[in-house]
Amino acid sequence: MTTRDFLFVLGSSRPDGNSEILARRAAEQLPAGTRQRWIDLAAHPLPDFEDLRHDSDHTRPEGDDVALLLDATLAATDIVIVSPLYWYAVSASTKRYLDHWSGWLRTPGIDFKATLAGRTLWGVTALAHEESEVADPLIGTLNNSAAYMGMRFGGVLLGNGSKPGDVLKDEAALVRAKTFFARQAPLAAFPTASVYAQAPFALTP
Ligand SMILES: Cc1cc2nc3c(=O)[nH]c(=O)nc-3n(C[C@H](O)[C@H](O)[C@H](O)COP(=O)(O)O)c2cc1C
């Protein structure tokens, strides 16, 4: 079996938060020999993404946090977005990391999309709200991003909690963590019909 390289991208604005605690519980179950790399976006802050996609000069970043994240992303067979739920979406630092993917799609010499195709995107998220359905926008963001990139999508491991450590009281989440990374991750697909198309205004003749 080929060795897998898991990259955990931490997107909380505080250290030792619930998302990271839950992700570490899930990572404990990875088979021996699986490589793990953990990068905290708070310790390696990315600059605001500048949209230079349609300019002509694209160069590969060197020697900075963008280069670190790019190289780590290219080396990973499995990318785990570890982000708290912020306003029903991924955190700003996580979103900035994903925005940089758009620049990397144009970076010469790395074939970013082809390299990531077939690899797996996962998510681990803590949220304060009791009903997990409120995390659907975050799940949609990751699923659709994986679909766009031709990646597999392993889903999102959700845990409940407000202050750091609360997630350890979410026993169902801890049980889900035990098998989360063992699940099959199918090739991601865009949803076929948007729930928004079912809104009343779309039904009027
Ligand atoms: C800026 C901000 C926005 C938040 N938005 C939501 C939200 O939309 N829904 C929710 O259930 N919890 C929300 N929360 C609560 C966090 O998701 C919750 O405290 C979570 O445990 C934080 O994860 P962490 O410990 O990994 O940072 C928000 C917290 C902050 C600081």
Please provide a written account of the structure.
It comes from Streptomyces citrinus. This is NAD(P)H-dependent oxidoreductase. Keywords: Oxidoreductase. Its EC number is 1.-.-.-. By secondary structure, the protein is an alpha/beta fold. It has one domain: Flavodoxin domain (Rossmann fold), CATH 3.40.50. Helices cover 32% and strands 17% of the residues. It contains 7 helices and 5 strands. Strands 2-1-3-4-5 form a 5-stranded parallel β-sheet, sandwiched between helices. The chain is globular, with a radius of gyration of 17 Å. 33% of the residues are buried. It binds flavin mononucleotide (FMN).
Task: Give the secondary structure arrangement, pairings included.
Elements: E1 5-10, H1 18-27, E2 35-40, H2 65-75, E3 78-82, H3 92-104, H4 112-116, E4 120-127, H5 136-149, E5 152-160, H6 171-179, H7 200-203
Parallel strand pairs: 1-2, 1-3, 3-4, 4-5
Helix pairs in contact: 1-6
The protein binds flavin mononucleotide.
Tally of individual domains: 1
Residues in helices, as a percent range:
25-40%
Radius of gyration: 17 Å
Strand proportion:
15-25%
The SSE string, one letter per element, is EHEHEHHEHEHH
